[in-house]
Amino acid sequence: MASFESGRIMTMPAAWQNAAMHADPLADRAVAAVIGPWADAAGATGPGITRLAQATRLMSGWTTNGRLASWSPDDPTIDPQVAAALRAYLDEGCQLPPWADAAQIERAENVFMEYGPMSCVLLFCASLPQCYVLPHLAEVLHVAGQLEARTEHRIRHTAAMVFPVMMKGGLGTPAGGGVAQVLKVRLIHATVRHLILRGAPGEAHNRVMPLAPVGPGASLNQALVTHGWDVPRQGLPCNQLELAYTLLTFGYVFLKGMRTLGMKLSDADERAFLHAWNVAGHVLGIRDDLMAHTMEDAAVLFDSLQAQAQVTPATPDVRPPLGRALIGAMASAIRVPVIRNMPVPLTRWLIGPATAQAIGVDERVGIVTRVVFAAARIAVRVFDAIVRVALPTFSLTRMFTRVVGYHLLTRMLLAQTRPLGLPDELLNPLQDTVAAWEHDRRSPEWVNRLEDRLTTVGAWRSAP
């Protein structure tokens, strides 16, 4: 656990272990109430799973923040037990923390609007790869099969939370959808915990023995129920430490990536960005004492959690397949040959060689690619430094990052054949937001014309 009093962080091994054994009481209670008691390992295949399917379907009605307060199912066939559990969950979960600062949140939204394409690149090439470093968190993703067999599905699922949180009014207005989307993800985390542990997490203290392996056609629920889990050794699935680490990948890792790219934000913008994600983290069920409010504290917490992961054995190590699947998905989304392989060295640069090796990214980086990328990076930085004497906001790094962001956005998040899982109330504003990124007001016109040649002329819309 971490304490940030007076700007200092203290790591306490006993408290770390305590946090690993705690998850999310509110969401866990809701899922337990929906599924009901388990009589045996088959307990989730009968009425409990039917009620869980009802709850999943009902969550699609949580479209905007404003609808949460008055939400109730309009289907008379819904089990009253399900409706009551979800209503109680929303009553407590949809409240922002008392320390939420509307001005800070708005400032963070402005940062996202200004650097939106780079936000997408850093989500793909830094935030998501860093998520796979914690072995037990990676194991949950591996069991779900969502980053190997269903890589793009998992990416779009993550983006369906990130964009509503950071778009205008996402957390603080009734028309926004950030709170609604985060609460859906929070309940999904609790469902995963409940199925892996075959019961309420609060009652899990021993090892959950694996069952007979399921076949290739098995459902996600079946894969989770049969996997097994060593609670004393691994802690609870998606526990507080793992949730706190994941939160840092959206806030701290993005800001660190901007620094690496040579586009450091002001201290005030960095604090605002961390604040907005901490508000989202509160809604996600993360304890306030596991949040960092400055880049310095975030770095200490992030490094401490990664160091903890290094001493935790991963047997078998499922992280490299996840990393390779992500890199492969990005490469397939970029149709311009000259930049198709850029995500590989870019990811290695942003997350560092040690992390890249741990998650299998290094396996996809040849020596020629590394040399060419390093030489190009140095040349672009030198060119930027020279031109900035006359044009202070000039940046070819910014342009190339925007180009990669365009291809990832339009082909993986807005593709017409694989639509992002958002209601129209959120998807339409998202499409308008992306379309507005077509012109970079910070760059001279000739740079925008060069960017058009590598992307598209006019509004950034979904790829045909």
Supply Rg: 22 Å
Number of strands: 4
Tell me the span between the first and last alpha carbons: 48 Å
Order of helices and strands: EEHHHHHHHHHHEHEHHHHHHHHHHHH
Principal-axis shape equals: globular
Which strand-content bin applies to the residues? under 5%
Most strands sheet: 2 strands, antiparallel
Specify the number of helices.
23
Class from secondary-structure proportions:
mainly alpha
Uncertain regions: pLDDT < 50 for 5+ in a row?
1-12
If strands are numbered along the chain, what order do they take across the biggest sheet? 1-2
Q: Your description of this structure?
A:
The structure is a single chain. This protein is an all-alpha fold. 61% of the residues lie in helices and 2% in strands. A two-stranded antiparallel ribbon has the order 1-2. α7 packs across α21 and α13 (240-250) packs across α16 (295-310). The longest helix has 21 residues, at 367-387. The protein is globular and about 70 Å long. The protein starts with a strand and ends in a 10-residue tail after the last helix. Mean pLDDT is 86; it is low at 1-12.
